[in-house]
Amino acid sequence: MAALQDSGSKDPAAKRAGRGVGGEPKQKRARSIVVDTGGGGGSSAPATAPASESRAHPGSAAASLVDADALDCVVCYLPLKPPIFQCDVGHAVCSRCRDKLQATGKCPVCRAVAGRYRRCHVMEQLVESIRVPCAYAAHGCALRLVYYDQESHLLVCEHAPCHCPGEACSFVGSMAALLDHCSTAHKWPCITTVKPNDEDELTICLHDGFNFILADCSTDNKNQSSTASIQCLLLMTVARHPYARIISVHCIDPHAAGSGGQVATSKEMQCQLQYSLHKGSCSLSGNDPVIYNWQIQVSRFRVARTDLSNGLPKPDDCFQVVVPNSVIEDYDKDGIKVNVRIIIKE
């Protein structure tokens, strides 16, 4: 079983900016990766495999690939994945670029006639056999990924890191590790057991400062009549001012900034936050009036996603809910109770 190491970064967006079809060849990236050539198909596998699954030849513990571009399409520079085609000289392209080259008629590298591209089964077997570790292995991901699947995996890996919102804290870890860190190291309120009611609302008591809520949030798909739910980590901040409490809401999303040159998630998250005041008294005597105060404050706004890598967003850059002290109940002096509904638009 070969050791795994990546000594350089790889940015597909930067690669795609280097050249179009028929342009000047890009410079080879002087980088070396050590690949795991253990057998087995599929897009991922555990970090360790039984000895029977590895058929490495005696004495061949590792294979070094000096030029990682050898595993990429010569046209779009993205990792090659089956089906793979090659020209008569041997320049390999992905199936999508092969279809585009039919119109140009020539290989962009050697100018060979593109109509003679044929399947390259040897390269397909090679890229299927190469395994690389997840970039988030240090944060707990134990998967070995097929080379061409690593970037798509980063967009959904549950071990993608988030940053602690504490100003002097440098902690970085997965969402689960972040929750544990905030609860144990900082003693911030972390709610992980709250369940929505029949109207998908969460009843939460917010304290001054940071409040972390791990909650099931509804998804609203316009193309489908059914709704589902996904788990989200919310950071709800309460700032106490002389005349009001100001509440802001963020979604801690390790994939908010995108990974490996990929575009960040485009799903829109909305929050409906409600604070209710019910205060009243009445008398049974016939001439005394009934006094009853009832106030409901409802705000609906877009929630920004962040992995906190650039720190906590500035308060003026996000929606803030202002609850005047005059409407806050006496029992809410230490913690303000609100109803929260999160909707994710797909």
TrEMBL record:
Domain SIAH-type: from-to ranges: 129-187
Pfam families found in the cross-reference section: Sina_RING, Sina_ZnF
Native source organism of the sequence: Sorghum bicolor
PROSITE patterns named among the record's database cross-references: ZF_RING_2 (PS50089), ZF_SIAH (PS51081)
Region (Disordered): 1-56
Record InterPro entries: E3_ubiquitin-ligase_SINA, Sina-like_RING, Znf_RING, Znf_RING/FYVE/PHD, Znf_SIAH
Entry keyword Zinc-finger: yes
Name used for this protein in its record: RING-type E3 ubiquitin transferase
PANTHER family membership: E3 UBIQUITIN PROTEIN LIGASE SIAH, SIAH-TYPE DOMAIN-CONTAINING PROTEIN
Residues of the RING-type domain: 73-111
GO-annotated cellular components: cytoplasm
Catalytic activity: S-ubiquitinyl-[E2 ubiquitin-conjugating enzyme]-L-cysteine + [acceptor protein]-L-lysine = [E2 ubiquitin-conjugating enzyme]-L-cysteine + N(6)-ubiquitinyl-[acceptor protein]-L-lysine
Enzyme Commission number(s): 2.3.2.27
